[in-house]
Recover the amino acids of this structure.
């Protein structure tokens, strides 16, 4: 007898031999036992899951003269004829090559004839979704009211392409993907019958590579047997299919825990030199990270599809990661898999993604951050530090209080609540805990002003004396801010808060955006800390601010004059300064 592949040689002959489809086979056997056989069935499912095989067993069982527990005996003349393809009562049609309306018309003519030897005349149409729309429509009437001796069995891998008018006239059975454990058990039985020695790791690799298809697993088994002979080991199997070594994925895990960028580049180089498919490597990495996540979240290895040796290793490595970090890694590998599909240089994408994952900082739960902040806030309250929150910009500034005299009681300050969330955005909690030791910047006027003097001693007159110098220093660094500052004046000074009155919203927003810069220059000029706040105020400047100021050397004469005098309405549009601002800075007039 000529050689037969495993998929044909070990094709199931009775319902009990069909692997992983008990919900279908039990229903069909019960229908035969209770004489409730329908006139049309549709079997849908992935490739190699047993659709056509089950249809043939069902056809033999319907016409068998001596069934055993609703299984065909496969020894009677009717069963032998069907098995050998000589039976006239079982007609198999390929839907892909007989998809036109003429073939369906011939089928309608043939269903009128009674079976020759069996009880039913059975039509098995494989890949029925390939029929044309006209062919389906031609079949509708016959399918709905066929002769009593006719049974239709349709098989398809794409049931969504079958019209609903056809589906509604059939009993539908969905064949599921075959589990890895079931494929391993079936292959082990075949290997034992064929006197083939194969280890558990090889069976696991074949079963996972089959992706739920029994026929695919048997085809892979034949290929491995041709390469390795009757003694199959996992190492030789990986060479035959160029399968990515599982050890590479565990190397990736170690690199992630150690943040080893150099090792990541060396690993990519090893992958390229081994000739592995990069998308296959990334897909395996996603599965590896998924296994770690499953063990981490469930503290069990029952859901893993791998050998016992690797399950023990997953239990060890899962303790080194958090669930949030693993989810971020899996998301990045899934994105990388899509990127590699169209990437002109896939190696560069892989290197960049691995570097990003290796250098990724560990995530922190928001609850832990809040707990750390509460602890920090208690320390700050206990030490008496004064925390000032900038309300407009949401940035917190920490000011160190003046050291009181020994005889004076230490005032108890209240920590501002705005610091609790603003400081979390850009402050290291571990460093802020020692905020009382932060050194203030040395003022350039340290010889005349003590930086530790409390800002509550500020007065409007003191600021007026230094106002011109303050405005000029601001203009030297940021001319636009200096222009807005010249249009403002001091409205009030209260406990370290200097409130500036501005004539319009433009100047208010400009000063607010640069309030930290203004506070820094203010400290350098006056030697005292203060918070600068700008508000909209239409009143004229105070007498202190209306003093004659020397011309700014950074501005042209006409621009300097423009800052202190109003331009008449009739000449405002043509003023050279305004034209220059519009042309160079895209300025707009504010009414």
């Amino acid at each position: 007898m000529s050689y037969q592949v495993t998929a044909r040689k070990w094709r199931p002959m009775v319902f009990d031999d069909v692997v992983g489809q008990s919900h279908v086979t039990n229903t069909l056997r019960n229908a035969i036992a209770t004489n409730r056989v329908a006139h049309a069935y549709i079997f849908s499912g992935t490739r190699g899951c047993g659709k056509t095989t089950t249809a043939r067993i069902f056809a033999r069982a319907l016409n068998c003269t001596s069934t055993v527990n609703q299984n065909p005996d496969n020894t009677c003349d009717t069963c032998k004829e069907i098995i050998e393809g000589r039976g006239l009562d079982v007609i198999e049609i390929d839907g892909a090559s007989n998809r036109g309306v003429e073939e369906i018309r011939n089928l309608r003519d043939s269903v009128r004839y009674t079976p020759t030897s069996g009880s039913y005349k059975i039509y098995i149409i494989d890949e029925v979704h390939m029929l044309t729309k006209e062919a389906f429509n031609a079949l509708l009437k016959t399918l709905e009211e066929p002769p009593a001796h006719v049974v239709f069995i349709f098989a398809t891998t794409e049931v969504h392409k079958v019209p609903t008018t056809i589906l509604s006239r059939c009993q539908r059975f969905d064949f599921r993907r075959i589990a890895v454990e079931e494929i391993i058990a079936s292959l082990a039985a075949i290997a034992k019958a064929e006197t083939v020695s194969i280890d558990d790791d090889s069976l696991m690799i074949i079963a996972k590579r089959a992706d739920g298809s029994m026929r695919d697993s048997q085809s892979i088994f034949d290929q491995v047997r041709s390469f390795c002979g009757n003694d199959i080991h996992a190492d030789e199997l990986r060479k035959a299919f160029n399968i990515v070594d599982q050890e590479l994925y565990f190397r990736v895990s170690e690199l992630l825990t150690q943040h080893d960028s150099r090792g990541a580049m060396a690993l990519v180089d090893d992958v390229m030199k081994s000739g592995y498919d990069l998308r296959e490597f990334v897909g395996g990495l996603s599965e590896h990270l998924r296994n770690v996540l499953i063990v981490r979240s469930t503290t069990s290895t029952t859901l893993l599809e791998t050998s016992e040796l690797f399950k023990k290793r997953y239990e060890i490595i899962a303790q080194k990661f958090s669930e949030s970090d693993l989810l971020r890694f899996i998301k990045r590998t899934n994105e990388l898999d899509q990127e590699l599909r169209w990437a002109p240089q896939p190696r560069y994408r892989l290197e960049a993604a691995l570097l990003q994952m290796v250098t990724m900082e560990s995530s922190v739960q928001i609850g832990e951050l809040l707990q750390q902040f509460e602890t920090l806030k208690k320390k700050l309250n206990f030490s008496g530090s004064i925390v000032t929150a900038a309300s407009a910009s949401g940035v917190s500034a920490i000011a160190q209080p003046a050291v009181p005299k020994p005889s004076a009681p230490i005032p108890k300050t209240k920590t501002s609540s705005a610091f609790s969330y603003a400081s979390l955005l850009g402050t290291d909690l571990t460093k802020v805990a020692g905020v009382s030791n932060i050194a203030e910047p040395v003022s350039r006027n340290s010889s005349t002003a003590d930086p530790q003097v409390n800002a509550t001693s500020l007065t409007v007159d003191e600021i007026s004396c230094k106002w011109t110098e303050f405005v000029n220093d601001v203009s030297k660094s940021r001319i636009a801010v200096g222009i807005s500052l010249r249009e403002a004046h001091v409205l009030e000074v209260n406990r370290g808060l200097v409130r500036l009155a501005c004539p319009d919203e433009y100047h208010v927003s400009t000063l607010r955006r640069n309030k930290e810069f203004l506070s820094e220059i203010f400290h350098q000029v006056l030697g005292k800390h203060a918070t600068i706040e700008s508000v909209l105020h239409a009143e004229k400047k105070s007498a202190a601010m209306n003093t004659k100021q020397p011309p700014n050397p950074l501005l042209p004469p006409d621009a300097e004059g423009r800052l202190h005098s109003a331009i008449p309405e009739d000449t405002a549009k043509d003023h050279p300064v305004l034209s220059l601002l519009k042309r160079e800075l895209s300025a707009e007039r504010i009414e």
Remarks:
- Confidence is low (pLDDT under 50) at residues 385-454, 540-549, 552-567.
